[in-house]
Specification:
Blueprint lengths: L4 H13 L2 H8 L3 H6 L4 H19 L4 H9 L3 H19 L3 H8 L4
Helix pairs in contact: 1-5, 5-6
Length: 109
């Protein structure tokens, strides 16, 4: 089961709560930059938050959905179980053999 929108929102909140410097930066964005992109300040801020979240996931060698699961799972074991479940869904949707998929993404079988 892929991460839900609610889980992602919880993960973004936790991510931001753990990074007060990012919150300050996002709270002080130049409104003219939002206007130049044809966005509201809130939309522009949300976009910057998502970019920071995705950059952190990439820095950790994770997909953004994996970081979402990591930040919202009750335990590390729960995270691993959810992560494998999603990877299995992805492999199935891609029509890939599970062992081949695990090898491709460096997953323990």
């Amino acid at each position: 089961m892929a991460a839900t929108e609610q889980q992602h929102e919880q993960a973004l909140k936790k991510f931001l709560d753990e990074r007060p410097e990012l919150r300050v930066e996002l709270d002080n964005l130049n409104p003219l930059l939002a206007q130049a992109k044809g966005e509201t300040v809130a939309q522009y801020r949300d976009e910057r938050l998502h970019e920071a979240f995705e950059a952190e996931a990439e820095r950790l060698g994770l997909f953004a959905w994996e970081l979402t699961l990591q930040l919202t799972a009750a335990t590390p074991e729960d995270y691993q179980a959810q992560r494998l479940e999603v990877h299995k869904e992805v492999a199935e949707m891609a029509g890939m053999d599970w062992l081949e998929y695990c090898e491709l993404y460096g997953l323990a079988k």
